[in-house]
Amino acid sequence: MEKNTMKNELTNENAAHYVSLAPHIRSNDTVTKIMLDVIIALIPAMIASVYFFGQRSLLLIAACVISAVATEYITQKALKKTIRIGDLSAVVTGILIALNLPVSFPIWMAIFGSVFAILVVKECFGGIGFNFMNPALAARLILMASWAKEMTDYVAPEFARQGILTGATVDGMAYATPLAHLSAGTYENLPAISDMFIGNIGGVLGETSALALIIGFIYLVARKVISWEVPVIYVVVTAIFLPILGVPFEYVPHELLAGGLMLGAIFMATDYSTNPINRKGRIIFAIGCGILTALIRVKASLPEGVSYAICLMNLATPLIDKLTKTEAYGEAK
Questions:
Q1: Where are the transmembrane segments (predicted)?
Q2: Hey, CA dihedral for 117, 121, 126, 132, is it positive or negative?
Q3: Which of 24, 35, 38, 157 is the most exposed place for a label (fewest CB within 10 A)?
Q4: What is the pLDDT of residues 133-157, one digit of tens each?
Q5: What are the tens digits of pLDDT across the range 259-277?
Q6: Segment 85-90 long-range contacts (CB within 8 Å, at least 24 positions apart)
Q7: CA atoms 95, 97, 99, 101: torsion sign
């Protein structure tokens, strides 16, 4: 039902009715209401980004949101399609792109990422509900491939708050994230678990504070925007496979709090458009994300694997849907 809500968006209360297989379930949810709830759930993470990294976080968020909304408007206007910027989906995409960037990231590159996400990944495939992978994650991947140095130019929070954003200007300011220490095996340099939970560590804007992300998760579950199953299964499976693949058991909590695992599991692995339709498919999807994340983190050359894991499972969603499809209600066996 959730996926059909996105793909069969109704522009007003009197729009044409859509007929699907029984049983017919009615819902008062609209895309705008859902997206507004997601924005509200992201507010704690945005506040945390400003608190830990300073006011430039707001500039990055504003640049990404404005460019995402403008791109959607211009594209739909040029293609003579219904203008749908009021559904707030482009706003959500812009916020998520910004939260996947370090505070030092150049503004023009951030705008490029937003334009790519909306124009190429979303609108070229038919708009909301038809994109084959999460637009914000696709933007992160293209930005990482294009400007890897800028995407990994992390700054310690105490320097970011002072407005010092480049490691070349201050000796010892260049920051190695907890994931980098975990990947290198330099466990003695890991920050305290409490700092990682609260968010007083370097990294991209939205992934450092697990506390802020969990608050958003609780809100989305309480509002029934998402189910708890995909994020929880994703994180638990990752936690199970990390030690199997060789991560010392005592450092598994650091792995779970480091990097983009919480942000990806809560806000991007639950994307309606790129998720399998039924519950069984979503569970398989979450398990696959967890296994791939652990595998990439431990065995690949990059310390992070969340973006690649979710995007790979996005591509597998049609196959999962085919393998887990159910019979129509009342259909003769």
A1: 34-52, 58-75, 82-99, 128-148, 197-221, 228-245, 251-269, 281-298
A2: negative
A3: 24
A4: 899 999 999 999 999 999 988 887 7
A5: 899 999 999 999 988 889 8
A6: 86/32, 87/9, 87/30, 87/31, 87/32, 87/35, 87/128, 88/31, 88/32, 88/35, 88/36, 88/39, 89/31, 89/35, 89/128, 90/65, 90/118
A7: negative
Task: Write the single-letter amino acid at 245.
Answer: L
